[in-house]
């Protein structure tokens, strides 16, 4: 309850109204309205003072902001094994994209070998935001110097009707086009992605500042249509 009180002391009611529009699947009466920098500052303070363990055990939380704080505390973790354990306890309770997308543990950069095994597990989950988180972590940590072609295959093999899973797959492949063009473009040329994801990937890639104009023109020509649909 003390942490709840602290969150309410940081409430911004105008921001609360903005958030309710941004996260339509989150009930407005569960949003306190604390800005992300304040959430992160509080997380750092709780971790520094070792005042967070009981809070992490109290799942599910009542408020959206408590979930944001929970994710921010995990992101501060200094121990990889503890971090993974905390994530596996928390991810099943994540019910919106905003909380999912703010979780980014710093410790992951030092444990790529163990992390990729967990990513394979998360990305195959039938829980929307566990799967989304897995794909996000693959995109964040494995599209640069640690890239392997098999990671593209891993994501291409995810087939879901969940909007937030489809969106993250498109985001992943658009980012892969910016960073690993020669390998990623094959998936569009060979129609390896579901039609909606394929076209959303092209849209996001063509909006990117990291992809050259001639490549954007080429991508436009790869756009697909469903049967009976005009582009």
From TrEMBL:
CDD domains per record: AlkD_like
Superkingdom per UniProt: Bacteria
Pfam family, one: DNA_alkylation
Protein name per Swiss-Prot or TrEMBL: DNA alkylation repair protein
Gene3D superfamilies recorded: 1.25.10.90
Source species taxonomy: Bacteria, Fusobacteriati, Fusobacteriota, Fusobacteriia, Fusobacteriales
